[in-house]
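Case study.
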Amino acid sequence: MVAAVRSELTRLGQPRMLITWFGLMALFAVLVNTIMVTFVSGGGSLPPGAPGVAFPSLAEMESPSGLMAGLAAASNMFGIVTLSFWAMATAGDYSSGLIRLLVAAEPRRWRLLAGKVGALLVVTAAATTVAAIVNVLAVTPMAVPAGISTAEWGTDLVAVVGGAWVNLYLSLCVWGVLGLVIAVLARSAAVAISIGVGYVLVVESLVKMVKDAPSDWLLGTTLGAVASGGTATIAYGTALAVALGYVTLGLVLAGVVFVRRDVTD
Amino acid sequence: MSIVTTTDLNRRFGPITALNHLTLELPTAGVIGLVGPNGSGKSTLIRILLGLIRPTGGSASVLDSSVRSPRNYASRVGVLIESPAFIPGLSARSNLVSLARLRRLPLGRVDTVIEQVGLAGRDREPVKRFSLGMKQRLGIAAALLSDPELLILDEPTNGLDPAGIVEIRELLRDLGRNGRTVIVSSHQLSEIEAVCDHLVVIRFGELVFSGPMTEVLKRTREHIDIAPEHPADLERLEAGLFAGGWSVTTVDDVIRVAAAADRAADLNRAATATGVTLSRLIVAQDNLEEIFLEMTGRVDGELANGRAAANGKVA
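After joint prediction, the assembly is written out as follows.
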């Protein structure tokens, strides 16, 4: 399986794709931090159920974890980006016809799939790191001029930064697996991205607007809770368990379809 | 010893029968041409041999292993199927490196195959800048990467210029002479005739012919092409020869007469007797294309399959 991971990593090393992926992560980190600092310092808040974004209070922002609050706030946007690139990397093999060459070279298809997942996990870790670095670089110079105290931001720095990185990474992995599953089923990056974005921006927002909707198990909400290290409504452990359920279900479905389905056009 | 064997092999796609009880044995070593009209089942056969799709009936084996366990022979088979498929944003070298890593091959093989197909010096360019011919060379390089015993190449000379065609033809011949088996699927029958030792013809998923190329070429017949000095005389000449018992067909401004070379003088006299002067009289032999059309009945298999499906019948 190591061979499949290394092979896939070589294919993922397309400069334009990596620059776009990491660039979008950096862009959203800057964008969300700018809006978040403006809102928090101005005492404003987003309307409830706003898609993909949850901002901290001023007190939370000034706590040690405030330094990394932007990562959690932008987690669903990072998630959509990650879903898109996992979907493109997967569906691209079908649209280019490369899948025929890969399956002929490695007929143990589960290895190919595992190699793709393994390689995408590595690149996702790099993308998470880019987002974390840009988050720190963006929020630090913006906070003080906006009247947000950064006195406590150095406390437990390694734990805060490491924890935020791990939480974001875990949530992005689930987003990515979702993109991979839809791409394997649809064999189309466009369809996979449309479904992913449409779900978060439309379906999940609509469901959340319904009173007493069981939002604990909704994908975006759950992964937002994972990225935040738990929320007032969803405990971290619960969110992780639900996310693990999504990943397991998704990988089993993708695995069965990928292994059993004919490779035609 | 057979390198590929199929017995009663079947594959259906909905109402279409792509392979219909195909039983076949392909010899080891040499270059084997696989030909048939569009929709004849060539691609389906190749995909089954590579483990990309599963047969719906019958059995097949490659290098003595069942196609149901392609992992037993995948490392010994190289393939160029349909169009060459690569990551356009990566260099030719990186594309080959990714395949070499997947196959757990030493990266030195990448340099070897790049040299072999004439891509040295261009291998660090992104594939998106490559012409179709260069992509085709890269596809062949990918197929050669594992130094395979069996090569399956679909239209290997597609997009190559005449010099490139000759070069690849020589490469395929060399591989065949050196004990490897090369299966070439192509519509370019002149290429098949030039390079193959063995020919397989399939139509509607059924075997029409399998045997040495020399045996096929024995089926060639001589014919004589004639043309009147004045095109207006074409009809009169054809009618006159037909009345004289000659077997004639007219293609454009040429009358093809089914006759051996030793009857050329008789034919000339017969033409003169109709009052027509010939401007051309050429003795020639049928080529593989004509034999192929005779074998396959001059039909487009895809159109025939489509009509059969529309009528609810199996092609």
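Observations recorded in class. Chain A has one domain: 2-260. Residues 2-260 of chain A form one domain. We will return to this complex in the next lecture.
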